[in-house]
Specification:
Layout (H helix, E strand, L loop, with lengths): L2 E3 L13 H4 L1 H12 L7 E2 L6 H4 L5 H8 L5 H7 L5 H24 L1 E4 L20 H11 L6 E5 L6 H6 L6 E8 L12 E5 L5 H19 L3 E5 L17 H17 L4 E4 L8 H19 L1
Helix pairs in contact: 2-11, 6-7, 9-10, 10-11
Family: Belongs to the histone deacetylase family.
GO molecular function: histone deacetylase activity; hydrolase activity
Protein name: Histone deacetylase
Length: 300
């Protein structure tokens, strides 16, 4: 059985002006349980990530600022959230969820996190609603524990995984692949091992054609023994910030392509959700639930 990291705290300690996009963390498990895609046995509640594990990726001075609520006003502005102990705890739980999911995926082929994909966090700072880089931390955990040798990060959020790219730029054991809006946030892009910038208005057909052309060959070339997949749904044509023309069905096909290629090559995968900012929360939830439905169908 695949496992899905979830804790109710994901949905709560957030400023009022950011509650709408974050409602998905509460609604996604409810929908999956309601429709019978998942049972309670699929879900687990992670504990906060340990300081030692965080510090394999992030600088101690930054970690201490998070723990002791010492971020400057400027640092909080770049993150997009006012600091609070609850927010730091939430981030530590999300991060451990991705770590735990990675360990589970090694044994069972796939695991998911109902959160995560905090790819804008750097070693010494956070930005773009990201405090800690959960996939980078989980990748370093697998390498540190000698559980995997070669990892690929497949980042298909509409925003470049700039923090992940920077964190892993000198790590030959982690290959970073980001396919994103070329003119979208972040406006200063870091250098991933492979960046594919998409023009505004890119259609679903073009998007899927590019992915189909790149991903199989990339997996053959990199030869990873583990994958992290950031399945952002901000590529949707309905998204307020995405600037692409990708339908709900195309977004689902994107997930299917990734899952089928990884399964074909026996590469375990951990999935985190990333962004989604369509005006109606039901659109966001449905797109994310498609990712879980496909994972359960293929790996459970």
């Amino acid at each position: 059985m695949i496992k899905i990291a979830f804790d109710p705290i994901y949905a709560h300690p957030l400023p009022e002006n950011h509650r709408f996009p974050m409602l998905k963390y509460k609604l996604i498990p409810q929908q999956l349980l309601h429709e019978g895609t998942c049972t309670a046995a699929h879900f687990f509640s992670p504990q906060p990530c340990l300081e030692e594990v965080v510090l394999w990726t992030h600088e101690k001075a930054y970690y201490d600022k998070l723990i002791h609520q010492e971020l400057s006003t400027s640092e909080q502005r770049k993150i997009g959230f006012p600091q609070s102990p609850e927010l730091t705890l939430r981030e530590l739980i999300i991060t451990q969820g991705t770590v735990d999911a990675a360990v589970h995926a090694i044994a069972h082929g796939a695991a998911l996190n109902v959160a995560g994909g905090t790819h804008h966090a750097f070693a010494e700072r956070g930005e773009g609603f990201c405090l800690l880089n959960d996939m980078a931390i989980a990748a370093n955990y697998l390498l540190h524990k000698d559980l995997r040798k070669k990892i690929i990060v497949i980042d298909l959020d509409v925003h470049q995984g700039n923090g992940t790219a920077k964190l892993m730029e000198n790590n030959a054991q982690v290959f970073t692949f980001s396919m994103h809006g070329a003119t979208n946030y972040p406006f200063h892009k870091e250098k991933s091992d492979l960046d594919v910038g998409l023009a505004n208005g890119t259609t679903g057909a073009t998007y899927l054609s590019i992915l189909n052309e790149i991903l199989p060959k990339l997996l053959d070339d990199v030869q990873p023994d583990f994958a992290f997949y950031l399945a952002g749904v901000d590529i949707l044509e309905t998204d307020k910030f995405g600037k692409l023309q990708v339908s709900m069905e195309d977004c689902k096909t994107r997930d299917l392509i990734v899952f089928q290629e990884l399964k074909k090559k026996n590469i375990p995968v951990t999935v985190a959700l990333g962004g989604g900012y369509s005006p109606e929360v039901k659109t966001i939830v449905e797109a994310h639930c498609n990712t879980f439905r496909l994972a359960v169908d293929l790996f459970d």
